[in-house]
Amino acid sequence: MSTTFGRELGRAVAAAGSGAATPLRLVLLELLERRLETIAARAHPKATMLPFRPAYSVKTNPRPAFLRAARAAGFLAETISPAEVAAAREAGYPCGDIIYNGPRPCRRAELDAPLGAAFADSLEALALYLAERPAALVGVRLRPAAVPSRFGIPFDEVPDAAALMRAAEPGLTVGASMHVRSEDYRPRTWLELAGSFVDSAAALARESGRSLAVLDLGGGWTPASLERVLEHDVPALRLLLGSVLPGLTTVIVEPGQSVSTPCEALLCSVLEVRAGRGEAVVDAGFSELPHLETYPHRMYWAADGMLAPVERGAGRILGPLCLEYDVVARDVALPDGLAPGDRLVIADCGSYDASMAFPFAGGARHEVAPAGERHR
Prior knowledge:
Lyase, Ornithine Decarboxylase, Chain A, domain 1
């Protein structure tokens, strides 16, 4: 546990107090602000020699405090629904700084003003966007070759998308988008995937007779993988884009989970310790964290004013639901002395889950909210 992360997590646990009802979400807002500032600096055109613009994915964590921090750090807002557009607007985003990039089509009548960009997930949505113009820039999401996905148009539909763009009015500003999680394209590298996407985008520009102004490179990165992309892949990407898409004015990167994941934790209470089985039951589980098995979570025992890591072992920590899969952690060692009423902290809980809806109420520096609280 890094010193900064441990200090902020410890302060958040202390702020919750020993009498706080659990499960309880803890927000490390100062850590979030530093992460946003760091990513904005790393992706700045002066650092990358590319016209990068970071965008915050509203779906990863739609807390008002997170959206306000992202806006203050210069991030665009990337949305997938009218409700997310409304959340971004309530956080102070102007429509021109909001991107729409989801499978649910965006209708102009649902907006109070055109957005900055809208990327169509299908040919049908592209035709709708060209007719209604819900955004200043109309683009299309392209499905990277050889990557199974339900999103975007496949390469063999690029000529049809180009024909729709070619028939639109003169002066139309267009773009292209991709978004694939790192676990979906292994053993390929992100740069290989980006190269395939740029080839498709270049074909779209060539066949439509349009100059692509904006590329949205999506997200799906962990904090470590985003760092590798910015450090190692950007120089090669710069050469590629300059040679095949010279008209680009903006390259969007959307580091959603890599921003928000480390900035929330869940405080829960031990209900029962089954020492003979090496098991403990806690009052949080699948309902609060349905993505527990999607990516690793760190866990700590909060005792005597300290946070002690829960180490690997042969035990399990179980959730409270009558579901076989309501298992919070496998292959862990229960801390010596763990007893009912003790507190455990599950870290890295800041990406979207079903219990969040959007957005949470509150906005304190170390905001806490009941895990199941929904937007009112």
